[in-house]
Protein 1
Amino acid sequence: MTIKVGIIDYGMGNLRSVSNAVREISAEPGLVSDPEKLSDFDRLILPGVGAFPDAVTQLRKTGMDQALEEQVKSGKLILGLCLGMQLMCRGSEEGGYSKGLCWFDADVARFPEKLNLKVPHVGWNNLLPTKHHPLFRDLPDEPDVYFTHSFRVECNHQEDVLAWCDYGEPFAAIIGRNNIFGMQFHPEKSQRAGLTLLHNFIGEDICLKSA
Amino acid sequence: MLKKRLIAVLIVNNGQVVQSIKFNHTNAIHYDAVHAIECFNKWAIDEIVILNVARTPESRDQFADTVLHISEKCFVPLTAGGWITEDGYADTLLRCGADKLILNTAFADDSALVRRLSDRFGRQCIVGSMDVMQCEDGRTTVRVGRGKVDTGMDPVKWACSMVENGTGEIFLNSIDHDGARKGYNLPVLSMICHAVNVPVIAFGGVFTWDHLVEGLNAGAQAVAAANIFHYTEHSTRKAKRHLAAAEIPIRRE
C-alpha cells in the first residue's frame, strides 16, 4: 500500500519541491490546507520557507495549530523542514519574539555575531549523527545535506538532538522526540542523501520510544 | 564543515538553453532544458540557477512552465529569475518549484519589491544578481537592464546596498568576462567578498577548471559556470575532481 504523505499548505514555502521528492521515493504526496483532512494521511510534513512570525500567524488563523496538536497526541509521525522545524519550538527571536507550537523545549535564535560568520548559512554541510537511528539507514557516516537559514534551534534537552552540524560551532541539524522530527536543512533538495532521509522517515517505523 | 558549491547556470531564451557571450544569446545548446537538468542531477552538481534572458516580459509564462518541468527532477536547490517585476510572478516561480529567486534590475527599479519579497520569504530566498563592466575610462561600474543601462555605481557600494535591501546571496557576473574564457573578474570579486557578510557566487568567464579554483581562492563561497558545462560529458564531476585535487572542500557523492 502506498504511504500517503500530507504536506501542510499554509501559504508558506515551496511545497512543490517537497511533493516532488515524496513522489520520487514512491510515496503519495498530498497538499493539505484543511485542518480536518490531516487524519487522512499516514505521515505529515510541515514545510516552510519564510519568516517565523508570519508562519505562526498563518497556522493559528487557519486552526492548523490545534489540528496538528491533536495529530501529535495521536502519535502520527510528523516532520518539520527548515522553518517547519523551528515552528515546533517554544518561540523565535526572528522579527521580535513570537511563540511557536512548543512541541520541543527549544528556542530559535540567530547565529551569534561573535562567530563572525556569513549569514545565512547557505550550502552543503555534513551531518554529525549523535546516535544510531533508523533515520540514518543506508547513509554514509557524515552525509552532506543542503542548508539555507539565518536562525538555528537551541535545544534545552541535548537528547533531542539526533544530529549536529558545525557552522562556527555545533548547532542542531536534526531533532526528534517520540513521533515528531525536525530537520534544519532541506532533504528534498539534498539529492541522494536527502531522498534517503525522507525515505527512512516515510518508509520505516522510526518512532522513538518515550524515555 | 561547510563545503564550497559548484553551480550550473542555465541561460534560457524562449524555452531553449542558450550560450551566452558578452550577453548575446544566440546559439541553442540543448533543445530542452529538462534534459540538461537530468544530466546535471546525475553529475553531482550542487545547485542550479536558471535565468530567463528573453527580451520581452511576455516570456514569463513559458519560463515558469520550464521551471515547473525541471523542478520535477531537480533534487538540488533551484534558483530562478528574469523578469521578476511584481510580487505575483515571484509567487508563480516559487509555486512552480523554484527554491530561490534571483533578481537584478529590480534592485535599481523597485528596491521596495525586493524588500517585500525578502520579508515574506526570508533573506535566504533572495539572490541579488549584479552585472559589472569596465567603462572606457577604466572604471568598473554596475549595469542593469540586461547589461544595457550603466548605473555609474561602484560595485562594492552596490553590493552593500543589495544586502541592505534584503538579499541573502550575491551573484556576481562580469559582462566583459562573460563567454570570454579568461576567468572570473577576480579584483571585483575579491573586493565584494571582503565587503559583505553574505555568501558571494562568482559567475562569468570560466574556461578551465583552474578558473573555479581562482574564484574560490578570491573569497567566493560558490562558483558558477554555464557554457563550459554543456560541452563535456560528466563535466561537473571532472570539475569537482579538480577542486578536490586543489584541496578545496566540496561535496562528493
Note: Chain B touches chain A at residues 1-5, 41, 44, 46, 68, 71-78, 94-100, 119-125, 168-169, 197-199, 221-222, 251, 253 (CB under 8 Å).
Protein 2
Amino acid sequence: MIEFDHVTRTYGPKTAVSDLTLAIPRGELFALLGPNGAGKTTTIRMLVGLLHPSRGAVRVCGHDLVKDPRAAHLHMGYVPDEPCLYDKLTGREFLWFIADMFGMPRRLATSRIDREIEHFELGEFADDLAESYSLGMKQRLVFAASLLHDPDVLVLDEPMVGLDPRSVRIVKDLLSARTREGMTVFMSTHTLAMAEEMADRVGIMVRGQLRFLGTIAELREQMSLESTTLEHLYLEVTSSRSRES
Amino acid sequence: MTTRSVTPDAVRLLSFEDESRLFMRLRATLAWETVRSMLTDARLRLTLVVVLSGLFWAALYGLFLEGFSFLDALHAEVISLLFNAFFSSLMVMLVFSTGILVYSGMYCSTEARLLLTLPVRAETIHAHKFREAMWFSSWGFVLLGSPMLTAYGVVRHAEWPYFVLLLPFMISFVIIPASVGSICCMALVAWMTRLRMHALTIGVTIAAVAAIWLGWTMFSQTNVDAMSAAWFERTFARLAVTEQKLFPSWWLSSGLIEAARTDRGGGIAGQALFESLTFLALLVANALALQLLAGWLARVAYRKGFSQLSGEMPSRRQRRLRWFDQALGHAGFATGRPLRLLLVKDLRLFRRDISQWSQFVIFFGLLGLYFVNLRAFNYNNSYASMIGYLNLAVVGLILSTFTTRFVYPMISLEGRRFWILGLLPVHRDQIVWSKFLFSFVGGLLPCCLLVLLSDSMLGLPWRLIAQHEVCCLMLCMGLSGIAVGLGARMPDLRESSPSKISSGFGGTLSLVISSLFIMSVVVVAAVPTHLFLISNTMGSGVVAPNGILAWAGGPWGATAGVILVVILGLTATFVPLVLGLRAFRRLEV
C-alpha cells in the first residue's frame, strides 16, 4: 500500500532523508520513531505529497505521489500535527466540504458524516464555527474528516497532541478496528507507549536514515535485551548512533 | 482480515467544473459567515467601514466631478492621458500586489497545505487563491475607480451603455495585471526559488525608479504656476509616455472614452459603441488567455514550487545590529534595565517582521516622495499654510494606522506569553511603559522629519514649522498612549493573530479615537493660524472686529492654540495609559 523506493530528500547541503526504502502492506499499523530532526516530518510530507523527493519515488496504492498525486490522495487520509480548519465553517460544513471533495454521493456522505460525528463525539459542537473550538476539538474533527471516505491509507503526524484521555482511547480503538478491516496506518510519533501498544512494526530514524525496521520483538532480539520497554530500546538505538558519530 | 477494496466505489475524482463549483460554494459560505459574524459581533466596525467608505466614495465623486468639469471645459484632450497615467500606474501596482498575495496564499498558508493533501487539481487551488488575491488587491481600484469613472460619464453626458459597460471593463482589466502577477509569482517560486527575493527586489526597484523618474519629469523644472494652462500642457506632454497602445491600460481608457461618446443629438453613437466593445473584447480575450496560461502553469509548477520552497534552509540569523541592542540593553541605570530589555526584544521582533517595517517604509517613503515634489508648485502664503496642516494630518493618520495595526495588539500578544514574563522580575507597569516608549520613539523621528520636509518644501516660516513640530510631538505621544492604553485596557488573550486583534472592537475604537484626536489637534492648531494669516493679508477687521474670532486670529491666538494642543496631547497620552495600567495590573491570565 505504501512504498518508499530509494527515497532521498535534501535541503540544500543537508540530507534530511537518505535512501529510504520501505514497504508497508495492507492492514498494517506502522509507527515511525526518531529524535527531533531525524527526518520523520520530511518523510511524512513526502508521503502526503507536500514535498517531492530529490531522488527515488513514493507510491500509495501504486500511484506515484509526484506523477499522479490526485489518484494517490483519493486513497489517503491525513491528520497533520497542527490541525487546519476554516475558522468560518462549522464542523459539519467542514466535513461536507471534505466529503464533496472526495466526490461522495449525497446519501453516503450524510451517513458517513453522522457516523464520524458519533464516533468522535462531535455532536455537541458540530454546528458551531470552528474558530470557537479548542485544540482537542479541532484534532477530533480533523480525524473525523480524514476517515470520512474510508481511506486505504491513513497518515498520522503526532496524532495524540491535544487529545484528552477519552479521545485518545476513541482514536486507538478506531485505529485497531480499521486496521483489522484492512486500512494501512502510517504514524509518526514521540509517544513510545502508543507505538508499543498499537504498532505492528516500528521504524526508527536517526539523522535521515532508517536505523531499525521490524517488530518490537525483533528489536529486542537485535539489541539482545530480552525483557525491556520500547523506551529503553529506542534510547539504545538512538544513542548508539550518537556514539558512532 | 483484509476485506477492503483498493479502489473504493464510494469516492471519485471530481471534474474541473465540479471542483470549481465546490470552491465557489466554499467562498460563498465563508463570505456569508464573515458578514454574519460582523453583523453580530462587530457592528461598530461594520458601520464605520460602510459609512466611511460611502463618505469616501461621495467625496471622491464630488472631487472628480469638479475636476472633469474643469478639464472638459479647458483641456478635454488630456482626459485620455490622465486615464492612461492612472490605469498604467494601477496596472503595475496590481501586478506586484497580486503577486505577493498569491505567494502568501498559495505557498505560506495552512489552507494551501490542507488543499494540497486532498484530491484536487493544482489549477483549481490556484484559481481559488487567485480570486481571493485579486479581490484583496483590486478593491482599492473599485473604490477609487468607480467614482472617477462615474463622474466622467456624468460630465460627458454619457448614455446608459457607458455605465453598463463600466463593470465588465474594470473586471476584465483587473484580471490582466493580476494574472501577470500570479504567473510571475509561480514561475519565480518554481524555477528561481532561491533568487525569488532578489528578483522581486529588482522588479520593485525598477518600478520605483520608473515612478520617481515619471514624478520628477512631470513636476521638476516647472516654473509656471500650478493649474495654469501652460502647466497642464507641460505636465500632460510628459504623461504621454504612459500612452502605449500595447498596454491594457490604453485599451481600457480608449474603450471607456469611446463608450462615453454621444452623437450630435446626445444619443448613443453607434460607431463609438462598436469601437468600445472591440476594446472590451480585446481586454476579455487577453484576460482569458492569461487565465489559461496561469492555469497551465499552476498544473506544471505549483506542486513543484511548493515542494522546493518547503525544502529551503532557514535564513541565517541577522546579527548586524546586535551591537545596538546590547548598547541599548546595558545603557543607563540598573533599575531601568528590565524596561530597556523589553524594548530591545520588541525592536528585534519589529526588525525581523518584514510585514511591519516594509509597510512602514512604503507608506512613509511615498509620503516623503510626495513632500519632495511639493517644491514644484507655487503657493501663496495661506494656501501653503493650509497644505502644511493637511500634510500634518496625513502624517498623523498614517501613524494612527500603524499604532492601531501593530502597537494596539502588542499587549494582547504579550499576555499570551505571560508564562514567560510572569516568572521574570519585571513589574507589569514596565511592560506597558516599554510598549509606549517603543511606539512613541519609533514614530517620532520619521514623523518629525516628514513634517519638517513638508514645511521646508512649502517654504513656511520657522514659527509655523516649530508649531507643526510641537503638534507632531503631541500626535506621536497621544497616538501611542491611545493604542497602548486601550490595548492594555481591552486585551484579547485568546487571539494569536495581531490583524484579528486590531480589527476587533478595541482596535476599531482605538482607530476612531485616534482619528478624532488627530482632527482635534489639527483644527485647534490650524484655525488661529488661518485666521491670523487672513487678517494679515486682508486686514484685521475682515474676520471679526472683536470677540473670540478676533482674539483667536490675533498674536495670542496661535499661542493659545499650541497650549491647547499640548493639553490635548497630554490628555490623549495619559488618560488611556492610566486606565490601561490599572487594568493590566488587575489582569488575571
Note: Chain B touches chain A through 39 residues (CB under 8 Å).
